[in-house]
Amino acid sequence: MTQKKNAFYAQSGGVTAVINASACGVIETARANKDRIGKVYAGRNGIIGALTEDLIDTGKESASAIAALRSTPSGAFGSCRYKLKSLEANRREYERLIEVFEAHDIGYFFYNGGGDSADTCFKVSQLSESMGYPLQAIHVPKTIDNDLPITDCCPGFGSVAKYVAVSTLEASFDVRSMAKTSTKVFVVEVMGRHAGWIAAAGGLASDHGIPVVVLFPEIEFDEAKFLKRVDTLVKEHGFCTVVVSEGCHYPDGTFLAEQGARDAFGHAQLGGAAPVVANMIKQALGHKFHWAVADYLQRAARHIASATDVKQAYQLGQKAVELALAGRNAVMPTVERISDVPYKYRIGVADLAKVANVEKFMPRDFITKDGFGITDKCKRYLAPLMQGEDYPKYRNGLPVYVTLKNVAVAKKLGRFDLK
């Protein structure tokens, strides 16, 4: 692409503590190449912003405001759970994207999200090619679930892992101190629909003398076996902690936490595995318990983000722009691990055709034989991703986060209604 074109950036799906660091990497790198990239537009509320032509002019933000994104959680431009259907089922939406991109002279498409976003990005690249519109579509990886293939890890995961590991350890110390006359079991529920990477992080508390039981989505839930394990640990230690993934399920595939509802992506609406497990323990064993659901807290905790995670999130945003400038299309920058100790990695690249609609699960050798803990191999994988602190600035006891002006770009097309 020789002619100077504008760029479009959008955030998709559940946000993280470091997705804005990727946005910072994209925007700052684009600004550093202003001779080749014109304006950088962002979609207000993700891909919906492109479909409804609700674009944000990031050029209206100061350099300091964009830099502050690196230490600000959530999605600065708004995200969404809106999945575009297949090209065959809903071609009108894909064609609308191309219309908006053409109207605003956009030649670069940076889509920051997880597996569904990778699929959308790939489909957009295919359609633009078939329509003869020059567009380079680059997927910027993001997901706390850590389930994207090819890349060693996903931005957002390291910080969630750090939060869950720290919170599990601290709460377990609390339970241990009260166990003689009060709570004997603490149950914490973490995110992870099909992959147990986040739950695995809670297992790190075992290195500090904490008896921990981890319930993974990869291991079918066996109630009798689970209760026996909990009872044994309580008898041996006086207490225990249970870390349950929201995706934990029975042999027939039914989630412990399934509510019967579906989200915008068609996934089962989860939430509530912790009280199910806690009450199960109470009824069968009679132990006093407390339970908690980490929910948004785990993915919003920028105050305890992993320095490794923040750095990689920025680098992948930066690399996305570099790949586009190098003429690449339908690709995703990746993290390639070179060694565990000392931790070394490089930024690589993967074809979206190999990323879209593929989930990466916990390897069986990362989970102990009994299915309730993590192995040393898993610990070696997790440790470097959680390393380092990258604290935000504080004022009056609270972290200083930026709120962008998000100035709208004038519309050039007619109204488009979402179905």
Can you describe what's shown?
The chain has two domains: 5-143 and 303-358 and 387-399, Rossmann fold (3-Layer(aba) Sandwich); 157-300, Phosphofructokinase domain (Rossmann fold). It has twelve helices and 13 strands. The chain has helices at 19-32, 47-51, 63-68, 91-103, 115-130, 157-178, 197-202, 223-237, 273-285, 295-300, 307-325, 376-385; strands at residues 5-11, 37-43, 55-57, 106-113, 136-141, 185-190, 212-215, 240-245, 289-293, 331-339, 344-351, 394-395, 398-399. A five-stranded mixed sheet has the order 3-2-1-4-5, with helices on both faces. A four-stranded parallel sheet has the order 7-8-6-9, with helices on both faces.
Give the SSE layout.
Elements: E1 5-11, H1 19-32, E2 37-43, H2 47-51, E3 55-57, H3 63-68, H4 91-103, E4 106-113, H5 115-130, E5 136-141, H6 157-178, E6 185-190, H7 197-202, E7 212-215, H8 223-237, E8 240-245, H9 273-285, E9 289-293, H10 295-300, H11 307-325, E10 331-339, E11 344-351, H12 376-385, E12 394-395, E13 398-399
Parallel strand pairs: 1-2, 1-4, 4-5, 6-8, 6-9, 7-8
Antiparallel strand pairs: 2-3, 10-11, 12-13
